[in-house]
């Protein structure tokens, strides 16, 4: 098995500073929203992004005009549904980041968003499959555990599916886990978080952090905080939305990791991608260690073989939940 420390150091840096070697057009769908705006700002600040295409049902011309005054290389254009704006936004895109859809209010689960967001993600994925089938698709819209199967099934139906290019963005769970451990230890290290992106499917692997010692009580409390960190923000925002700024940071980190990998850097991230790790349990998507390359996923890595019994039990529970949410996404596409 691989050494956890090298995994940590490989993906530690949030943003690189070197200038772009390849032109990269990135489209953001849902770009005028709570995540979309700060995420677009961070992408505009990334020297590897040469073109930034902002699509939303409203307000993107203003967001694009504003970001367009920032003196970085990316050319920014805003699109709305008028004049076939979605297709124009996607034309030539190398990467499409999708934070379009409604966020939670207090008392809701991510799955409660399915009835609105499933259709949004399906229609946006249909446009991607038609216009930019080779783009890397980064799905942020919740419930990720179902929206990734939805987007994948749309691409399969269209005959253009490449499992190496569709990602559920679970980076916020890693960002949170890292921050919570920093609060405890004063050390800023990466914490692998695997499984999915909702409640008990979020599985932090504290055993993989070198030198980290937690009592059982500390481990339980930290695990709960990572699994339900989204609820903390939803509650604090009191009905006005869910995490936007930390998500923008996490999404920009994941996009930067892919862009660095496309330039030949060896990068490992954690992401909800197609794999056979739990095929025997009937699931196709599971967030795990992923080596990134120029095509997207270069290698799906298994979970470390030295998980604790506590972590193994979390995986069993998470897999059982993922079976339901994956099926729900699959059925949504195939029942229409
Ligand atoms: N993966 C994660 O870790 C993570 C973290 C935080 C939030 N989220 C999810 O991201 C989504 C967006 O959250 P937000 O806070 O930015 O919400 P928001 O309401 O502030 O923004 C969503 C944007 O999507 C746009 N939109 C709606 N339908 C669209 C369509 N068909 N095409 C294009 N744009 C469309 C809206 O106009 C809006 O501007 C939610 O589903 C939320 O649950 C995921
Ligand atoms: O909690 C939410 O609904 C948003 C997001 O998935 C998060 O983890 O913050």
From TrEMBL:
Family per similarity comment: Belongs to the LDH/MDH superfamily. MDH type 1 family.
UniProt GO molecular function: L-malate dehydrogenase (NAD+) activity
Protein name: Malate dehydrogenase
Domain Lactate/malate dehydrogenase N-terminal: 25-168
EC annotation from Swiss-Prot or TrEMBL: 1.1.1.37
Name of the top EC class for this enzyme: oxidoreductase
Catalytic activity: (S)-malate + NAD(+) = oxaloacetate + NADH + H(+)
Keyword NAD found: yes
PANTHER family: MALATE AND LACTATE DEHYDROGENASE, MALATE DEHYDROGENASE, MITOCHONDRIAL
């Amino acid at each position: 098995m691989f050494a956890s420390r090298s995994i940590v150091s490989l993906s530690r840096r949030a943003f690189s500073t070197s200038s772009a070697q390849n032109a990269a057009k990135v489209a953001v769908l849902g770009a005028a929203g709570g995540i979309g705006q700060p995420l677009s700002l961070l992408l505009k600040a990334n020297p590897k992004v040469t073109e930034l295409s902002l699509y939303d049902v409203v307000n993107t011309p203003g967001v694009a005009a504003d970001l367009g005054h920032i003196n970085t290389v990316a050319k920014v254009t805003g699109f709305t549904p008028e004049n076939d704006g979605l297709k124009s936004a996607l034309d030539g895109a190398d990467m499409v980041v999708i934070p379009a859809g409604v966020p939670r209010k207090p008392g809701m689960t991510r799955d409660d968003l399915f009835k609105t967001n499933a259709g949004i993600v399906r229609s946006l994925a249909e446009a991607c499959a038609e216009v930019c089938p080779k783009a890397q698709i980064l799905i942020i819209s919740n419930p990720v555990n179902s929206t990734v199967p939805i987007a994948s099934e749309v691409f399969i139906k269209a005959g253009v599916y490449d499992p190496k290019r569709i990602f559920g963005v679970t980076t916020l769970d890693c960002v949170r886990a890292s921050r919570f451990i920093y609060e405890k230890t004063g050390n800023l290290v990466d914490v692998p978080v695997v499984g999915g992106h909702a409640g008990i499917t979020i599985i932090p692997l504290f055993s993989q952090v070198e030198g980290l010692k937690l009592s059982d009580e500390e481990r339980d409390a930290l695990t709960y905080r990572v699994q339900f960190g989204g609820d903390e923000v939803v509650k604090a925002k009191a009905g006005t939305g869910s995490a936007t700024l930390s998500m923008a940071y996490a999404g920009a980190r994941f996009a930067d990791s892919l862009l660095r990998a496309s330039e030949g850097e060896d990068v490992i991230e954690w992401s909800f991608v197609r794999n056979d790790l739990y095929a025997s349990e009937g699931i196709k998507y599971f967030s795990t260690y992923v080596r990134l390359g120029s095509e997207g996923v270069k290698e799906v890595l298994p979970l470390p073989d030295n998980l604790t019994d506590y972590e193994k039990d979390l995986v069993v529970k998470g897999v059982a939940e993922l079976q339901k949410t994956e099926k729900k996404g699959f059925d949504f596409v195939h029942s229409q």
